[in-house]
Write a structure and sequence with these properties.
By secondary structure, the chain is α+β, with helices and mostly antiparallel strands. It is built from 3 helices and 4 strands. It has one domain. It has a two-stranded antiparallel sheet. A two-stranded antiparallel ribbon has the order 3-4. A hairpin with a 2-residue loop joins strand 3 and strand 4.
C-alpha cells in the first residue's frame, strides 16, 4: 500500500511524486493502515494521502518517531527503534 519505495532527496522528487499521485500514476493512501500493513513498513516507504479524501489528519502507524527535522522543503522523521531485553528470574 506504500505510494513509493525509495529515497526522496529533493523538492523536485517530492513534487514529481505529488503530481504522479494527482494523475493517478501512483496510489494515494485512502485509509489508515491495517495491522499487517503497519508491520510491512520499511526504510524508504513513502505514503501520500489527502486529508479530505482519507480522513487522516495526522499520520499514525504505531511506531515511535523522532521530532521532525526540516531539510530545505522536506520534513524528515527518524524511526526510533527500542530493543528491550526482558529477563525472567
Amino acid at each position: 500500500m506504500e505510494t513509493f519505495y525509495g529515497i526522496i532527496e529533493t523538492t523536485s522528487d517530492a513534487l514529481i511524486l505529488f503530481e504522479a499521485s494527482h494523475l493517478g500514476i501512483v496510489q494515494k493512501v485512502r485509509r489508515r493502515l491495517h495491522e499487517k500493513e503497519r508491520k510491512e513498513l520499511r526504510s524508504g516507504s513513502c505514503y501520500i494521502f489527502s486529508e479530505s479524501e482519507s480522513g487522516i489528519k495526522r499520520w499514525t502507524d504505531g511506531r515511535l518517531w523522532s521530532p521532525s527535522r526540516i531539510l530545505g522543503n522536506i520534513r524528515i522523521y527518524v524511526y526510533i527503534f527500542i530493543n528491550i531485553l526482558l529477563i525472567s528470574l
